[in-house]
Amino acid sequence: MSGHHNRLPALDDQRRGYNGRVSEQGELCAYCLAAVLTGDEKPEHAIPGSLGASLTVPTVCDECNEWAGREIDQPFLADSLLQAHRHLAGQRDPRRGRKARPVASPLLQGYTADGDFFTADPETNKPVRRSRIVDLGNDRQEIRASSPEEAERLLERARKRAAAEGKEIKIEGEEHGEIQPEITVHFTMRTDVWRREAAKIALAVGSRVYPLSWRSSEDAHRLREWMHNRDSSTEDEQAPPLVPDHVEPGSRLAEGDEHLLYFTSPGDGATYLHVVLFGNSHFTVPVDTTGMAVPQQAWRLDWRKPSKDGLTTWEDFVRQAVIRRVGKAA
Predict the structure, then answer these.
(1) Which of 35, 25, 30, 82 is nearest to 56 (CA)?
(2) Number of domains the chain is built from
(3) Which domain holds residue 303?
(4) How high is the mean pLDDT of the chain?
(5) What is the CB-side half-sphere exposure of residue 184 using CA atoms within 13 A?
(6) pTM listed for this prediction
């Protein structure tokens, strides 16, 4: 456990010592409940900024902000299921500007038995080999390229390297043609990665909509435990998987492949935060079991326009969904 995590208060300390709205010095960080906020913290993205989500909260200390980005957001962004959703939506990383390439689907890329990496061209869906120079031993090399132009570029590089060593390149033969490779695809979806991201989103959003005292509640404390729980099992007394599903209510509320955040209380006395990513992956996270009023704030986040904050209301979600359904039925 890193030094940063060691400052997280013990469970009993959280329940006994943080029963007020703020510390004696000021407001406490929602993620660690230990650092005192100064008001100069960097904004924390509830949903990772790489997904084009503009919603930020000022309730997280800089150290936790950096830790969450490194330990929670980055593994989540590397998840194959999320990458597949980003590919289907045609998303590019909004922080890389016009130079950003579309996110590649893990289902359309992989390695051959010879170690060549292939991916599908987004325009033609034809396989494209990642060009490389293969060392065959005994001063012999093989250039494997996706095009004659790329082969010539690598050949020129090999010539320069050989000349620097006092050697000369001799071409033994060339082969041209279309390739239909057999590739092995690696697809991984880790329940603990989704659970930790879901808990982080819920803790960030909850710290924005609920009173300060909520941060020291049992519900917020449970979310912190899930944020730090790397156990992928779902045995008794372990955190639930919180993996996405395709629950119809979430899909109906989304307009296209946008992100949604909203709250509901299904009648069991608890309030849940619903998270919909790219209009497809939908999961719910419990945020309050004490009977507080259900927050009416909601967010409709268009990843194509990440500068918009997307704040709206639950009533607007329902109204827009009804209008769309009536329009389709007409």
Answers:
(1) 30
(2) 1
(3) 3-78+189-329
(4) 79
(5) 7
(6) 0.72
